[in-house]
């Protein structure tokens, strides 16, 4: 899909290049038939065509358009439009103008792509942190009742799901989807529901990949389902009514934060058979599937349940996408967090495409009685954009930190901060007493090779 989109954009660019050049030359013939290219005019108006192309698309299309003007100069005498001696200054002046404009366009286009990449990366990371924060808050709020009434906590269930996704290379197949649906049944009290997968183009498949109870048949013309797909929201599409004795009534417990659709009118075309339609969408916007719920307890259809459902689906989708991206790294290091591996791959791409610097810093701690305390101290020092990985070894531990958008100055600042924190809170410093630190800037090489090289460094 991305390939087709890029091909279409490239084709449109060259079609516009030839079209604008042809329009400029044709307009000259219509406005000034004796001198259509304005060679002898006070101002060479025809050069606005190549100028606009260079400003919009850069140097290469601008040069092609300039070639079109030169070709017209060579062909004109054959149609009875003599231009006299070839206008060298006219062509050189236009060529220099196009080159300068194209260079300006290329520089600012690159800067805009750079800014967009940084903005997208920051937005994705913020979305992931928001979901992780909600998971932690929810886990703490319900810890007491979970320990009393439920043998498995939400954290344990999601860890098991993450490990299962790693074994299946990040694919949302029947086994992983069944595990996710089991968690949703446990924490959201679903009675009848189904998960329908989506293909790479974001189109839903007809067969459910997992279901519980009576399931939920896929009706593509359903009002609620269409609203969920067309809105583009990663929040959940919740119905704002519940059937009571065959009549629709609106429960007041539904959250205004959940996108809802009014289906309480009598028109049959606006009726829906679903209580909840929840997209499984990643932080990057990719649709992995759709959860359809047809039956659940009325008292559970409220703000908190819908939020829990949303976060669980979003978290699972992010984990699946991360595992799929970082398949090679997770194959060699199964204990590596999928998000860490996926972000490492993303920073390598940023370095290759936009020359954005990132860094990897590793702190090695030899095994002793204060190993856990030292590791927890370092975990508390992570920035919001950073990703960390605590790797346990036979001789101790390696605490690896991935720092996006960080150059040599940021590396030195991080080292200094860790040194001071350890000295103040633990009474130890790096470079002695079994604590060593290594760092490297992320390059354009294979991310797995870079990670292995860092982990193998020892003093």
Detailed description of the structure:
Strand 10 and strand 11 form a beta hairpin. The protein folds into three domains: 114 residues, no CATH class; 182 residues, 2-Layer Sandwich (Beta-Lactamase), CATH 3.30.450; 129 residues, Alpha-Beta Plaits (2-Layer Sandwich). With 459 residues, the chain is an alpha+beta fold. A six-stranded mixed beta sheet has the order 2-1-8-7-3-6, sandwiched between helices. Strands 10-11-9-12 form a four-stranded antiparallel beta sheet, with helices on both faces. It has a two-stranded antiparallel ribbon with strand order 4-5.
Concise summary:
Strands 2-1-8-7-3-6 form a 6-stranded mixed β-sheet, sandwiched between helices. It has a 4-stranded antiparallel β-sheet with strand order 10-11-9-12, sandwiched between helices. It is flat.
Short key terms for the protein model shown above:
single chain; 459 residues; alpha+beta; Beta-Lactamase; Alpha-Beta Plaits; four-stranded antiparallel beta sheet; 12 strands; 52% helix; 14% strand; flat; transmembrane; Membrane protein, putative; PelD_GGDEF; GAF-like_dom_sf
The proportion of residues in beta strands is 5-15%
What's the number of extended β-strand segments?
A: 12
What is the arithmetic mean of pLDDT? 78
From the alpha carbons, calculate the radius of gyration and give it in angstroms.
30 Å
